[in-house]
Design goal:
Helix content is 75%, strand content 0%. The protein has one domain (85-297): MetI-like fold, CATH 1.10.3720. The longest helix has 36 residues, at 85-120. It contains 13 helices and no strands. The termini are close together. The protein is mainly alpha-helical and 304 residues long.
Amino acid sequence: MAKFIVRRLLSAILTLFVVATLTFFLMNMIPGGPFNTERATQKQIAALEKKYDLDKPLFEQYLTYMGKLVRFDLGDSFKRLGYPVNKIIGEKFPVSAQLGVVAILLSVIIGIPAGTYAAFKRNKPIDRVLMFVTTLGMAVPNFVMATLMLVLFGVTLGWLPTLGLSSWKHFIMPAVALSLNPMCYIARLMRSSMLDVLGQDYIKTARAKGLPERKVLFKHALKNSIVPIISYLGPLTAGILTGGFVVEKIFTIPGMGKFFVESISNQDYPLVMGVTVFYAALLILMNLIVDLVYGVVDPRIKYE
C-alpha cells in the first residue's frame, strides 16, 4: 500500500502542475485586465500592474507564480489589496465546508435508503414513484431549486431566513438545494447496484439457506452494493466542500463559492488560480481516500 500511496502522490504533484499551468495561461488569455474596470487613470493602472508584476513578460510572470506556488504562496488578491489568497481560502473554506458537510449527509442519509428500498420494491408503484422523483431531481439544477425555495419559503411564506448561515435554520434551504441532485443520483445508483448484487449467486445461496431477508440485505448485499457510491462520494465531497458557487451567491453565504464567482467577473487572477488549485488538490485527496476505503469495504481489492 505504501508504494501505491507514493505513486498517487507523485501523480498528484504532476496533476497540480498541469492544472496550475493551464489555469494561469487561460486566465491571461481573457481580454482586458484586472484593473481596466477601475475608475483610475492610465498612470494609476500602470502603477498597479507594476506592483503585481503584470508589466513583465507572460512567461516570467508564470515562473514567478510557480515559484510562489511551490512555497504554498498563492499570492495576493488584486481586488482586495494586500489580502493574501491563502488567508481568503483559510477564512472562507470552513464556511463552505460546514454547508457542504450538511449537504453530503443529507445526500447519503436519504439517497442510500431510498435506492435500497426501490431495489427491493422493483417494478412496484413505489419504485416507479421514486425513480420519477429522482429523475426530476437530477434534471433540476441546484440554482433553480435554490431560487424557487428562496422565493417560496423565504420571501412569500417567510418560514426560513434567506441570508447567511448564522443559525441552523439558515442551513436548510442552501443544504437542500445543494444536496438534491447528488441525493437523487445516489438513490438511482444505489438501486442499480443493489439490483445487480441481489442477482448474484451468493445472495441466492444465502436466501436458499433460509437467512432472514434483513440479514441478507445488511450482511451480504448492502456492503458490496455501496462500492459505486463510495466512488461517487470522492469528487462529490470535493465539489460540495469547496462551495456551491451559485447557491452561495443566491443565499449571500460568505464562502469560497461566492468569492470564486466574484473573482472570475473581476478577473482577480490570483484568487481564481488559488481556488482552482485548492479545489484540484482537494479532489485528488478525496479520490485517494476513496481508493483506500475500497480496500476496507471490499477485501478482494488489492493495492499493487
